[in-house]
Amino acid sequence: MIDRRRSRRSFLKLAAASAAGWWASLSPAGFAAEREPHRKPIPSSGERIPVIGMGTWITFNVPDAPGPMAVRREILGRFFARGGGMIDSSPMYGRAEAVVGDCLRALDRPEALFSATKIWTRSTSTGREQHADSLDLWGAGRLDLQQVHNLQNWQAHLETLRERREAGEVRYIGITTSHGRRHDEMERIMRSEDLDFVQLTYNILDREAEQRLLPLATERGIAVIANRPFRQKALIERFEDHPLPDWAAEIECENWPQFLLKFIVSHPDVTCAIPATSVVAHMGENMGALYGPMPDAAMRERMVAWVGDL
Amino acid sequence: MLPFDGPTWLAILEQYNQAIWPLHGVAALCVLAAIALAFSGARFAGHAIGVLLGVLWIWIGLIFFGGSVAPFHFAAEELAGVFVAQGLMMVLALTVMGRGGIFGWPGGRTGVLAVVLVVYAVAAHPLLGHLLTDTPWSQLSYVGVAPAPTMLLTLALLLLALPRPPLIVAIIPFLWALVTGYMAAGLGLALEYIPATLGVAAFAVMVVRRFQRSEPWLDG
Ligand SMILES: NC(=O)c1ccc[n+]([C@@H]2O[C@H](COP(=O)([O-])OP(=O)(O)OC[C@H]3O[C@@H](n4cnc5c(N)ncnc54)[C@H](OP(=O)(O)O)[C@@H]3O)[C@@H](O)[C@H]2O)c1
After folding, report:
1. DSSP-derived 3-state class of residue A271
2. Pfam families from the entry (chain B) (predicted)?
3. Inter-chain contact A94–B5, Cβ cutoff 8 Å?
4. Contact partners, residue B38, CB within 8 Å, separation at least 6
5. Of A171, A213, B30, B212, which has fewest CB within 10 angstroms of its CB?
6. How far apart are CA B102 and CA B41, in angstroms?
C-alpha cells in the first residue's frame, strides 16, 4: 500500500517535472538557453570561446572592390549573428587581414570578436614588423591571439610574442602547423614552452593528431584550434553526393559541413575549428554546428566508420 | 600554392589592365616588331629581339608581379625576381652575347608550331577567353604585358632561332608554362591549359632540336 502510494507520488513528480521541462523548453527563455552556442574554455585562462570560428585563407584575399567587400561584410555579419567569435588570419594570406579589418570597422567591431593572427617569416625583425602591421590592420590596440605560423623561427618569435604579451598587445600566444607536417617538432615545443594555443590540422580523415598532440595539449593545458576542417573543400566534394546517415538527425546535422564540424569539435581535446568560406549561405551552414547536441564517443566512432565506407 | 581563387586572379588582372592602359599598345608594337624581325632573317634581329622581349619580361616582373600581384601573393617578390632575371638573361644572351644566332623561317613542323604559338599568344588567347568564357576584355591577359601569352610568344620566337635556339633562355618560360597549367587547375580556368600545353610542346621541340643532329619528324 505504502509502496503503491510512493510510486504514485514519484510518478506525479516525474510528470510534473516533465511538464515543467516541456513548458520551459517552449518559453523563449528556455529556448534561448537550449540554443546557446557551444563554448569551450581556454585552459590557461578559463575564458570560454565558441567552438566554431572562421579562417580567412584564400576566402578573404580579395580586392578592395565593392562587390567582393560587400560579400565579406555579409559573411562576417552572419558569423557574428550566429554566435561566432574567433577569426584566424595571417600576413601570408595576402589582403585577408586588411579585408577583415575593414569589415570589422563596418560592423562596429562586434564585441564577440576573438582576433587570431600569425607571424609568418624567418626574420625576427620582420616578425616584429608583421605584429605591428597586424595591430594596425585589425584596427585594434590588442590582438587576442598571436601565433607563430608553421613553426618558422619559433624560438625568436615566441620571445617577441612573450614581450608583446607583457606589453598588453596580445592576450594569448601559440604556434601553428598544418597538413600533418612537423608534428614531432610541435610536440617538443608543446612540452618545453609555455603556450596558450596550438593550431593543427584535424578532421574526420586526418586524425593523426589524436595519437599524441591532442592528449598532450590537454595534459599541458593548451587550447587546440583545428584548421583545414574540410581539407580545403576536398571532404565536402568527396561526401556531398552521398546522403547523410539517418542518425545524423540525432545530433541535429542537416548537411555534411555540420556533420564534419561536429565531429571535430566534439573531440574533448579540441577547443574550436576554423572553417573558411567565401559564400554567405555556407557560413550559415557552418555556424549550425555551433548548436544542438554533440556526438558522444560512440557516435564519433560511428561517424568515422560511416565516412570510411563511402 | 595559390593564395587566391579564380575571381580574385581576374580582378587582379582587371586592376592591372586599368592601371597600365594604354600601354598595351606600346607593348603590342614591341611584340609586332619582334615578330617581324624574327621572320625577316635580318642580321641584327637576334640582338633587337633580346632587347624587346627582355624589356617586356622585366616590365611584367616589376609592374605586374611587383606592383599588382604583390598585395595578394606572399611570393610576388620572388616571382618578380624570376621575371626580371629572365628579362636580363634575354638581353645578355641574345643582345650582348649574340647567342641567338640568326633568326628566320625554320620551315617544317617547327615553323608551323612557331606560327601557331605566335597567333595564339597575340590574338587567340584573349579572343577565346572573351568568346568562350565570357570574361570581360578588362580581365584578360594580353601579350607583352601579362605572363602567359608573353611566355608563349618568347618560346615561339626562340623556335625561329637558327640553327637552334639557346636553351638557357627557354628554361624560365618552360617553367612558367608548367605554372600556367597549375594555375589552370587551381583557379578553375580551363582555357589556361592551352598556353600551358603549347608552351610545354614548344620547349620539348627545342630540346629535341638541341640534342638531335637531324630531326626529320620535325622538319617533315
Ligand atoms: N599553418 C596554418 O597555420 C594553417 C594552415 C591551413 C589553414 N589554416 C587556417 O585554417 C583555416 C581553414 O582551413 P582552409 O581554409 O585551408 O580549409 P577548409 O576550411 O577546410 O576549407 C575551406 C573550403 O571549404 C569550402 N566550404 C566552407 N564551408 C562550406 C560549406 N558549408 N559548403 C561547401 N563548401 C564549404 C570553402 O569554399 P566556399 O568558399 O565555396 O564556401 C573553401 O574552399 C584557414 O582559412 C586558415 O585560417 C592555418
Report:
1. coil
2. DUF6064 (PF19540)
3. no
4. B45, B49, B103, B104, B157, B160
5. B212
6. 7
Domains of chain A: 47-308 (3.20.20.100)
Question: What gap in Å lies between CA B3 and CA A61, rounded to an integer?
Answer: 7
pLDDT of A8 over the 50 cut? no
Over residues B32-63, the pLDDT tens digits come to 999 999 998 888 999 999 999 999 999 999 99
> Which of B3, B7, B15 shows the shortest C-beta gap to A94?
B3
The residue to mutate among A58, A277, A278, having the most atoms of ligand 1 within 8 angstroms of its beta carbon, is: A277
Are B94 and B160 contacting, i.e. CB atoms less than 8 angstroms apart?
Answer: no
Which of these, A88, A90, A73, A57, lies nearest to A274 by C-alpha position?
A: A88
3-state DSSP of A11-74: HHHHHHHHHHHHHHHHCHHHHHHHCCCCEEECCCCCCEEECECECCCCCCCCCCCHHHHHHHHH
Q: Which of A54, A61, A233, A255 to mutate to test the pocket of ligand 1 (most atoms within 8 A of CB)?
A: A233
pLDDT for A92-147, tens place per residue? 999 999 999 999 999 999 999 999 999 999 999 999 999 999 999 999 889 999 99
Tell me whether B74 touches chain A (CB under 8 Å).
yes
pLDDT, tens only, B174-192: 999 999 999 999 999 999 9
Residue nearest atom 11 in ligand 1 by C-alpha distance = A55
Predicted pLDDT at B100? 63
